[in-house]
Write a structure and sequence with these properties.
Shape: globular
Strand content: 35-45%
Strand order of the largest sheet: 1-7-6-5-4-3-2
Radius of gyration: 16 Å
Number of strands: 7
Order of helices and strands: EHEEEEEEHH
Length: 170
């Protein structure tokens, strides 16, 4: 079975793009919305995203826990935040490799902001049969594309709830 290498979903949030970007571009906060991520530590201790910023993300799926090393590839305030996952491991991200790319885009939509989240499978050198077998084992039966489709929808829904219930800064 051929793999799906990218999954995209979006949601309209009743909040300013700059406000949403400020939250999403701080990797330490992602655990507030994601069903899998539990936050992150920025390697240089900063909170303001910039291209080249490196952070370690902490993740949990059922009893499994792992850490990823990520590098920010886009930090356009109020417009786009993106990063690549470049290493993975248990407590420390020791195994290097092209794993995945994540992107968040922010655009005006009526009185709010359309937030679009994209996951891209960067494991292009893996044969499909090997990737499919690994994915089904790691996700308990799903492809990563199907698994990420649900995770993205959950993340966007949680982000919308958090942003729309936050006190206005105006």
């Amino acid at each position: 079975m051929a793999r799906t290498f990218s999954v995209v979903d979006s949601i309209v949030i009743d909040a300013a793009a700059s406000t949403i970007y400020e939250q999403v571009s701080n990797p330490a906060l992602m655990g507030r919305w994601s069903p899998e991520n539990r936050g992150a530590t920025v390697r240089d201790g900063g909170e303001q995203a910039y291209v080249g910023m490196v952070f370690d993300g902490y993740n949990k799926r059922g009893p499994l826990r792992w850490t990823t090393r990520c590098t920010v590839t886009a930090a356009d305030a109020g417009e786009r935040f993106a990063f690549k996952v470049r290493a993975i491991g248990g407590r420390r991200p020791l195994v290097p490799g092209r794993i995945a790319s994540w992107e968040y885009r922010f655009e005006a939509a009526g009185g709010g902001t359309r937030v679009t989240e994209t996951w891209t499978d960067d494991r292009r050198s893996w044969p499909d049969f090997l990737a499919n077998a690994f994915d089904r084992m790691a996700t308990r039966g799903d492809t990563f594309a199907d698994f990420q489709r649900r995770n993205i929808r959950t993340t966007l829904t949680n982000l919308k709830t958090a942003m729309e219930s936050a006190p206005s800064s105006s």
